Structure formats: C-alpha cells, structure tokens
Amino acid sequence: MKKFLFLLFVIIPGMVYSIEKAESQAVPKMNFYGVDFTLVKTFGVKEEPGKVAKAFEEINKLIVSETKKYQYGNFFTKYIREIDQSKELKKIQFTTFDNVSIDEAIYRARIMNEAGMPTYSKTFKIDDAAVVALVKSFNTGKDIGYGVLYVAELLDKEAGIGNYIAVCFNVKTKKIVFTDRVSGKAGGFGLRNYWASSLEKIFKL
Prior knowledge:
With 205 residues, the chain is an alpha/beta fold. It has one domain (28-203). Helices cover 40% and strands 21% of the residues. The protein has 7 helices and 6 strands; from the N terminus they run αββαααβααβββα. It has helices spanning 2-26, 51-65, 75-78, 80-85, 103-111, 128-137, 191-203; strands spanning 30-36, 41-43, 99-100, 146-156, 161-170, 176-185. Strands 1, 2, 3, 4, 5 and 6 form a 6-stranded mixed β-sheet that branches. The longest helix has 25 residues, at 2-26. The radius of gyration is 21 Å and the shape is globular. The termini are far apart.
C-alpha cells in the first residue's frame, strides 16, 4: 500500500506537469519586432546624413511607447483571414502580442548605410528574395513562436506616403508565413513624427 501511494505521488505530479507543458505549448507566442528600415529607399527626403537613421530609431521607440496612438496590435484583426488560411498557423486565434522587442530594429537603424537610401524611382519595390534574406538575418535571440516585422520599402516625401511590407514569419525557421504591402499617409512636425504618422494610419482598423 505504501509503495502504491509512493508511486502515485511520483507519477501524478509528472502527469500534471506534462499536461501543463502541453497546454503552454499549444498556442505559440507572437512577437512584435517593430519596423526595419535597412532596405528602405527615400524619394525627395533631403535631411542631413545621420538625422534620417536617427529618426528611424526614434520611430520604433515611439510606436511601442504610445500604443493608444500606434495600435500595431490590430494586426490580428487586419490579418485574421491570412492567419486562418495559413497551414502553419492552423487557424490559431491570436489576439495580442506576447512579446515586444525593438532592440534589433534599433540596432540595425544605427548601423545602416544612409548613403544608399535616395532613389529617383517612385515605383521602387523590394524584391522577394531581399525580404527573405532580411528575415533570415534578423536577430530574434531566444524567442519562440512567430514574429511580425514591418519592413520599410519606400518613403516618398513628394507624395507624402510611406510604403511598408508587413511580414509574419516563423521565429525558429525564419520561414515567412505571409506578407502584405501597405501604405500610409505621412504628416506632422519633425522627421520622426512625419513618417511615424504613416504607420499610425497603417495600424488603424
């Protein structure tokens, strides 16, 4: 009898732990990584070197500190169809981001080559291979689950439009689940606020 009770004390906690572990792994985490500007082209942007990249860094800080204005969490409502139809996500009902980390986006803004940003083409688009390479090189640390990253494509000062690519990807394999090209009207005082406003429009429902 004592031996039987001993086995129960050993087995049952292990079963409970296994069930809890399975439940915790049932829904993968969703991570928000901000906006990557390393592939962006600019049309008609004439600010001094250094100021533009600094603004990119500040934009990332702004959108995660003023979440009432920059509602990036609406991603799950905007892309419910894409999530439902994805074979990999298997119709998981995501409602919020479990983790927000802009460290990599900020680091990349600090080391990016501003000299290569200007373009004379208002129709510039980042090719698919470049987006794939960017995601593969994006440092997600020890994060698990899936990630959402907005890749800045073209900032057109003449038209006052910011073009971006919304990217959802598997954090572990870096496989892209889906992408979507989005645009927002820019406006406001100062370089940071001017382009951040385009993201505000994009994030709104």
